[in-house]
Design brief:
The protein is α/β, with parallel strands linked by helices. It is built from nine helices and nine strands. The strands form two sheets. It has a five-stranded parallel beta sheet. Helix 2 packs across helix 9, helix 3 crosses helix 4 and helix 5 packs across helix 9. The structure holds aspartic acid.
């Protein structure tokens, strides 16, 4: 079957930009597909905009930077935070949202292809956030779309906006990234958030520790990729030896939906549980993060510990996603 791949250089075809658009702004009209797109200067810029967004939200709550702009939120997989934070981000910027969270009720259920769904939605929207179970789906969507595509998670591949908000959280909470030891724990095989975060952290002078059952270890290709960049990485199966040095403990859920063999899931699902007792071995000045949802791997008793940063992390996500929307739409 011949595949027709249309030209990609068709971003922002209209020369009639509304007053206030910044054509020269970095990321104007760009897709956000992978953390590989970003260098340290970009991160500084994005985090600067995110801080401005926080200041504005604190001052006025909602403002009209993206008034008249429309976001299509296209989710083929469940989501609470990514979907609702993009919605909140768009609405706080004065724009509006077409939510397609239940693809069962859309034409996808009739067998519509991803390219067709994308080409339809971009007739109505200015930017599309896509979550899809297949690795590479956001790249496919971007190849067909004239409007910016933001990858909201492509299967076990990447989750770039989560990694950006994770890094923003680390910067804001600990004041730096260089020199830190980040310990990633849980499902490092299927967890897309750790794949993106590890890659993004490799822009810094960082020590990475991986704690996972053997069958959920970080993918060897990713370990090699970071190795080639000179990132020190250590893999262990228990937290105890690495916790005392850890500055950021990044906990993840075992990704039940990615297992072909549910018995295997049952064997590893309760592999790690972080409790106040566990945290006695941790530094006073460190943070515990989690992309959420948690399903037992962090006990609720930890929530009142000031080091528990996972709910603050969600709030950083709102400002970060506001920044991204404003940037790709040429308003930042
Ligand atoms: N919410 C994150 C994701 O979409 C983490 C998770 O589901 O475990 O990847």
């Amino acid at each position: 079957m011949a595949t027709f791949i249309p030209p990609t250089e068709r971003r922002n075809p209209s020369p009639h930009l509304p007053f206030g658009d910044h054509r020269d702004a970095p990321f104007y009209g760009h897709d956000i597909l992978s953390v590989a797109q970003f260098g340290r200067n970009d991160l500084e810029y994005i985090f600067g905009v995110a801080k401005e967004m926080r200041a504005m939200v604190e001052r006025v709550g909602t403002f009209d930077l993206l008034k008249g702009k429309i976001l299509a939120n296209l989710f083929y997989e469940p989501s609470t935070r990514t979907s609702s934070s993009f919605t909140a981000a768009m609405e706080r910027l004065g724009g509006s949202v077409i939510p397609i969270n239940e693809v069962h009720y859309s034409s996808v259920a009739k067998g519509e292809s991803l390219p067709d769904t994308i080409r339809s939605l971009e007739c109505y929207a200015d930017v599309i956030v896509l979550r899809h179970p297949e690795v590479g789906s956001a790249d496919v969507a971007a190849r067909y779309a004239r409007k910016p595509i933001i990858n909201g998670g492509d299967g076990v591949g990447e989750h770039p906006t989560q990694a950006l908000l994770d890094l923003f959280t680390i910067m804001e909470e600990l004041g730096r990234v260089d020199g830190l030891t980040v310990t990633m724990l849980g499902d490092l095989k299927y967890g897309r958030t750790v794949h993106s975060l590890a890659r993004l952290l490799s822009l810094f002078d960082i020590n990475l520790r991986y704690v996972a059952p053997e069958i959920l270890a970080m993918p060897p290709a990713l370990v090699q990729e970071l190795d080639a960049k000179g990132i020190p990485q250590t893999s262990v199966t228990t937290l105890e030896p690495v916790l005392p040095d850890t500055d950021v403990l990044y906990v993840t859920r075992v990704q039940k939906e990615r297992f072909e063999d549910q018995e295997q899931y049952e064997q590893v699902k309760g592999a790690y549980v972080i409790t106040p007792d566990t945290m006695e071995q941790a530094k006073d000045e460190m943070i515990v993060m989690h992309p959420l949802p948690r399903v037992g791997e962090i006990s609720m008793e930890l929530d009142t510990d000031p080091r528990a940063a996972y709910f603050r992390q969600m709030e950083y996500g709102l400002y970060l996603r506001m920044a991204l929307l404003a940037m790709v739409l040429g308003k930042a």
